Amino acid sequence: MATLSKQKIGSVLAKQGILIAFAVFIVAFTLANNKFLTVDNVFSVVRSSAILGVMALGVTFVVISGNLDLSVGSMMSFSTIVVLDLHDKIGPFLAIPAMFAMTLCLGAFIGILVGYLRLNSLIVTLGMLSAIHGLTLTYSGGQNMDIADKEGTWFSVFGQGTALGIPVPILIFALLAAVLGLMLSRTPFGRKVYAVGGNGTAATFSGIRRARTVFMCYILSAFCVATAGLIQASRSLGSQNTVGQGLELEVLAAVILGGASLMGGSGTIFKTVIGVLILGFIQNGLLLLGLQFYVQYVVTWVIIILAVWLDIAAKRGRLWSPIA
Amino acid sequence: MQPGALSKALKNGAIWGFIVLELIFFSVAGEFMSLSDTAFMDWENMLLLLKQSAPIGIIAMGMTIVMVNGNIDLSVGATFAIAAIILLDSMTWPFMAAMGDWAIPFAWLFALIVGTLLGALNGLLVWKTGVDAFIVTLGSMLGYRGIVFMFNGENPTSHLNWTLVDFAEAEFLGIATASWFLLAATGAMWFLMTKTVHGRNAYAIGDNREAAVNAGIRVGPHMMINFAIIGFLAALSAVVFYSESGSVNPNDGQLYELWVITAVVLGGTKITGGAGSVIGTFGGVIAIQLLRKGLGHIGADTSTVNLVIGLILIAVLFLDRQLNVKGKEALKV
């Protein structure tokens, strides 16, 4: 009985470990600094995490399907630059759908390579990281992109506006998280994504079109990236070519922190959101404590490895790996 | 000829064929499009190319054995930066400064030891926790970068020692110091991977880990040694490069991991482990540098380089798959 309950506690800790860690962080930072848990601060943290968060939602689908996406950072730069450029050329009404269409094309290209041609997703998206960066530079001619009339455009609403007292980026993030979360957990498509990532061969034999499922995951990822690019462009109304550089790894860190396995087949949208918020609140909490921004890198390092390690340890029932 | 021998020869020779193709293309195109009068195939130009390949190339040699072993290391760029800071910062420490030029070998030693230890730490974590190398090194990529910033904040770390600069700029038999280190690293890793038990075990582990364990190979220590090797080589690359430049920014080495992995994959190393060679990686490194230099020669800007390299990487992966398929079954989508 005693061992049983001990195991139970262990499995509960392992399953909800990330939530418990999140709660501990919140309490610790609140005790350390009374500015931490105020409405203003929470809003500002979530708002600045929204771009990373929106991208992480799409990458969650890709990772659950058993693949990787390292191209989201440079793809986000691409959509930001494109929408800013088109804003002045054809107006925001046409610029936004045009940018979404172009970004989705890139996503479709990756989806064909990884889904239908079955190429290794790590290398394909690594190549696309470089290629899309080149594409962005060619498009912009290496120049920073700025909107001419920054005051007079309604385009800034996506990044700077508020509705019902809540900043719009947070609303977009929450809405997208809700829709994609339901899609993943309540629809046949979502179940197919888990099946393909869990055991691709078994999924194929049970009649799931694996290639199409993977393809759709990359389309979803590209859609999320385009949304993130829209928020980024609207927030700053001007941008460098490298605005998304390095984000792909931060996004992946958030998804992994949420407990999605890189082997595929596990992870949820809710946990990814928690992963994103943990990264955001750690960054903010450490800054409020007066620490430099780079301390968060080291803290993130420790947290990522601990989180994944404990997750694996709970599954195999022992702390240290059995590798000789 | 044995069945499959042709495709094997095609695969192994592909990177060299590609290099020849690049040389021809850029020489011919350079005649019409180049702004400078000198030919692309100039001897001086080729020697410079070898020297410029050194920073990525030296690290790529380590990445080859790590990837053949079935792992990956994303933290090499950050290790590179830490080693560079140790090299330059240590020469200003009081007891080191008192030694005059004798501080140089110690500074090199410190940087190389730190690089090796950081690599070994990655390996130890992969071994003992059982967490995937991709995640461990993704984490330490962030963590090590944080440590880089802790030295000097966002300011560059600089120290110029003219003896050191003279050494780094020296040429022996017409070949620059950095190039010699690249050749030495290539030679040493070639020997390690083809002529020693450790090298053969690395292939065995990457090819089939279960079988390697059953054959009595201790997988953990092998992985850790390989991570220590790549850490050492990342530090060596930094030491060679910053001996000459004498100043390091905290962001230096960012995205190096991506360039290194690109070179290794172009050179024919399988991302899943078990296959690859140092000679192929050397070809991959040269091919990338040729492409950068060649595109610059015919007046294309950096954006084209990124675009072309990305697409070539995907094309190589596609061709590799087509050459690897066994029977029609695998072609089914």
UniProtKB/TrEMBL annotation, chain A:
GO terms for cellular component: plasma membrane. Coiled coil: none annotated. Keywords: Cell inner membrane, Cell membrane, Membrane, Transmembrane, Transmembrane helix, Transport. GO terms for molecular function: transmembrane transporter activity. It is a multi-pass membrane protein. Its main location: membrane. It is found in: Cell membrane. The chain crosses the membrane at residues 12-32, 44-63, 93-115, 122-142, 162-184, 213-231, 251-279, 286-310. InterPro entries: ABC_transp_permease. This is Monosaccharide ABC transporter membrane protein, CUT2 family. It comes from Palleronia pelagia.
TrEMBL record, chain B:
It is found in: Cell membrane. It is a multi-pass membrane protein. InterPro entries: ABC_transp_permease. GO terms for molecular function: transmembrane transporter activity. The keyword Nucleotide-binding does not apply. Keywords: Cell inner membrane, Cell membrane, Membrane, Transmembrane, Transmembrane helix, Transport. Its main location: membrane. The keyword Cell membrane applies. The chain crosses the membrane at residues 12-29, 49-68, 75-96, 102-121, 133-152, 172-193, 224-243, 258-291, 298-319. GO terms for cellular component: plasma membrane. Part of the ABC transporter complex LsrABCD involved in autoinducer 2 (AI-2) import. Probably responsible for the translocation of the substrate across the membrane. PANTHER family: ABC TRANSPORTER PERMEASE PROTEIN YPHD-RELATED-RELATED (PTHR32196), AUTOINDUCER 2 IMPORT SYSTEM PERMEASE PROTEIN LSRD (PTHR32196:SF71). The complex is composed of two ATP-binding proteins (LsrA), two transmembrane proteins (LsrC and LsrD) and a solute-binding protein (LsrB). This is Autoinducer 2 import system permease protein LsrD. It comes from Palleronia pelagia.
